[in-house]
Amino acid sequence: MKHVIKLPDPQKELGFPLMKALEIRQTTRKWSDAPVSEQELSNLLWAACGITKHKVGQVKSKRTAPSACNSQEIRVYIILKEGVFLYEEENHELIRISTDDIRESIGTQKMMKSAPMGLVYVADLSRMNSPFLRSDEARRFCAWVDTGYISQNVYLYCAASNLGTAVLSLVDRDKLHRLMHLKEHEKIVLTQVVGHLG
Ligand SMILES: Cc1cc2nc3c(=O)[nH]c(=O)nc-3n(C[C@H](O)[C@H](O)[C@H](O)COP(=O)(O)O)c2cc1C
What we know:
CATH class: Alpha Beta
Oligomer: single chain
Order of helices and strands: EHHEEEEEEHEHE
Strand content: 25-35%
Bound molecules: flavin mononucleotide
CATH topology: NADH Oxidase
Strand order of the largest sheet: 1-6-5-4-7-9-8
């Protein structure tokens, strides 16, 4: 398997009424074995925190989700049967981190272990270098809030695309951190499982 996987372009023209997506959004904890297709993954990741305006010179890019001081510190990792991948939003591609199947560690609840796919929201604290985010407390608060926006984008995309999803805080973060080979300045905030409805 290649180290860098270019995702198909996201289908930004797909339509679904926003008010309906808000109405039917919900947490689901049952799914079928059907894998999430590359196109669905592309759409989902772009909806989560994809680039809406590319950077120009020193002006940073913009994403579908806001972030404190536009730090863009939340990185989305994808946990699949085929391994662990990092979403590189600037090029809309996946970078393979490992070929290990660590899906069982996405959450600690038994029912989560059968999910076909997991997302892990990781705060890269080295990106939070605004003077407004000097204290540990400010960085922690903002990383959690910024994760919430991304997670809700995923909820809304899933609602609009007939996918099931659940965001999880019941996670053994130390274990997952080890399994994902993360560094000290990379902190797991939440995880989220996604799959076709069972
Ligand atoms: C920060 C956060 C953490 C959550 N952690 C878990 C979890 O670990 N396990 C779980 O089954 N659901 C978890 N949930 C889902 C909530 O239980 C769910 O959102 C709530 O029951 C309301 O249901 P709804 O999302 O269908 O409206 C979490 C939700 C949030 C916002």
